Amino acid sequence: MSDTIEKVKCLIIGSGPAGYTAAIYAARANMSPVLYQGTQPGGQLTTTNEVENFPGYPDGITGPEMMMQLQAQAQRFEADIRDGWITKVDFSGDVHKVWVNEEKEIHCDTVIISTGASAKYLGLDSEQKYLKLGGGVSACAVCDGFFYRNQEVVIVGAGDSACEEAHYLSKLCKKVTMLVRRDEFRASKIMATRVKNTENIEILFNTETDEVLGDGQVVTGVRVVNNKTNEKHDIEATGFFVAIGHKPNTDIFKGFLELDETGYIINTPGTSKTNIEGVFVSGDAADHVYRQAVTAAGTGCMAALDAERYLAAKDSTFEVSTSSYN
Ligand code: NDP
Question: Which of 72, 165, 198, 248 could be stapled to 117 by a disulfide with Cβ–Cβ 3.0 to 4.6 Å?
């Protein structure tokens, strides 16, 4: 443990669109924010190729490029962006304590959590290979479906997300094949019925992914296996979508913050407030419904404004800036 404890007015944990937007707002409001980027600087968007649905980019932008621009924008206002991983927190007292890389201790007046969520993948080597190559594996139909219009795709999963994404893809793609590992859906009846009634969605029950097929650069198909008969067959496809759930990155907050059964942080509706005063949440760590870059950015802004108002109410010498409302 380090001997010197750093004191910070506003600590932001996480570096996706939520964290960087919070940093931009907090920096412009004279809160001298310190942002720790975590192990995946830029967050989930750095695993996406082209982002075409973030307002303000008429020609689209790559995920990594957009994150670099958001970081540069935060640094322009002197946000302190640091490498490092928050390994432990203690929100039990008046001072919010946070540890970086098990060592450095920071005492914070306010904390903004923007740790995001991670899409779950099957873990097959072939899936990971084409995911890393940006060659046709995706965990977000809304983000990437457009690139597969008039093409044939495969989607894995049987929950509400898989049904919603399969239905979304069916409007863009020629054909969607849905792989369901059991003989029934987990999704609500209404969602399952909708995909069953969609003409260009074929549902294969008791079917799992054996291998994602490709030419070394891009996906060309999927080898599937029937887990009742062990029979395998290949399906031609240019896109392989995985919709088997997300895991919010909130493990370190257990015991301090109220989490739902999946681990999402529970916020006061319409605000970024958590059950602990001075601790705010933004982005996918609290959002299992929308999960978009633009909604994450919006809640990052909310968190910074909520933190600023909290500081102003607590400390009469801290003035709420007018600039952050412009
Ligand atoms: P869920 O956990 O509900 O579903 C995950 C699905 O993935 C299950 O069908 C599961 O299969 C399947 N799965 C998991 N691992 C594998 C694997 N290795 N191979 C193949 N299939 C696998 O996650 P969702 O993201 O769908 O939903 C999360 C929550 O969000 C739910 O509460 C849901 O209701 C809610 N939601 C609501 C929406 C809405 O109301 N509009 C939209 C989206 C989500 P199995 O069933 O066999 O376990």
Answer: 248
46-55 long-range contacts, CB within 8 A, separation 24+: 47/131, 48/138, 48/140, 48/143, 48/144, 49/134, 49/144, 49/147, 50/147, 51/143, 51/293, 52/146, 53/142, 53/143, 53/292, 53/293, 53/294, 54/293, 54/294, 55/294
CA geometry: angle at 164 spanning 223 and 187, to 5°?
Answer: 85
Among 97, 82, 96, residue whose Cα is nearest residue 15 = 82
Entry pTM: 0.79
Amino acid at residue number 244: I
Q: Is 143 a catalytic residue?
A: yes
Residue located nearest, by CA, to atom 35 of ligand 1: 160
- Give the Cα separation of 324 and 326 in Å (integer): 6
The total number of residues written for the chain in this structure: 326
pLDDT in tens, the chain (326 residues): 556 899 999 999 999 999 999 999 999 999 999 999 987 777 777 766 678 889 999 998 988 899 999 999 999 999 999 999 999 999 999 899 999 999 999 999 999 999 999 899 999 999 999 999 999 999 999 889 999 999 999 999 999 989 999 999 999 999 999 999 999 999 999 999 999 999 999 999 999 999 999 999 999 999 999 999 999 999 999 999 999 998 999 999 999 999 999 999 999 999 999 999 999 999 999 998 898 899 999 999 999 999 999 999 987 677 666 544 44
Is 144 a known active-site residue? yes
How remote is the CA of residue 242 from the centroid of ligand 1, in Å? 10
Residues with CB under 6 A from ligand 1: 122, 156-162, 164, 181-182, 186, 244-245, 288
Please indicate whether residue 140 is annotated as part of the active site.
yes
Question: Is residue 2 within 8 Å of residue 103, measured between CB atoms?
Answer: yes
For ligand 1, atom 14, the nearest C-alpha belongs to 244
Q: Which atom of ligand 1 is nearest to the CA of 188?
A: 34
